[in-house]
Amino acid sequence: MKAKFVVSALLVLSLAGVSSAQLSGNYTIDPNGSGPNNYTTWGAAIAALGAGVSGNVVFTVASTTFQETLVFSPITGVSSLATVTFQAVGAPAILDAGASANGLTISAGTAFLNFHNLEVRNFTGYGLFLTGSSAVRGNHTFTNCKFDAPATTSSSVRAAYMQSAYQ
User: Fold this and answer.
1) Cβ neighbours, 10 Å, residue 115
2) What is the pLDDT of residues 13-54, one digit of tens each?
3) How buried is residue 106: exposed, middle or buried, by Cβ count under 10 Å (0-12/13-18/19+)?
């Protein structure tokens, strides 16, 4: 009986330490890719960032169309020395929001995100929405990015929108 208790206690203690590893290094986002460093969707890559980062993280994104909307929340470990970069090589990676309100949302407290060669389209609200409060940090970069707002007379559709308290 005593041996069963010790084994059970050790099993519980070992499972308590199981968690996702923080990201650091190079990864891909490619629906046709494979391997431990590939994510087939942006959503899967963003979910993995939920474990935090322990150094610079670079996602090389396939130059294809992704039927997704993105929401970034604060990422543990990011700093000016540990940034997160999403880059498409060659043709841009396209985010098709599928007529959802916002294509790319960056929430309060999220910092040091870099986007290179990205196109966001088919949204009904904002292509890029920087939302938050005065507690927000920024330091995001957008290089060769296009937020393709649909032709409309509505004042609620904008390529980019930053709440007044965003810093």
Assistant:
1) 23
2) 333 333 479 999 999 999 999 999 999 999 999 999 999 999
3) buried
Q: Which two tokens stand for residue 166?
A: 């965003």
- The helices-and-strands tally (H runs, E runs) of the chain is 2, 12
Phi, psi of 52, deg, nearest 5: 100, 180
pTM, whole model, 2 decimals? 0.82
DSSP-derived letter for residue 109 is T
Tokens at 46, concatenated: 């963003």
Positive or negative CA dihedral for 32, 33, 36, 39? negative
Name the residue among 30, 159, 24, 148 with its Cα closest to residue 88: 30
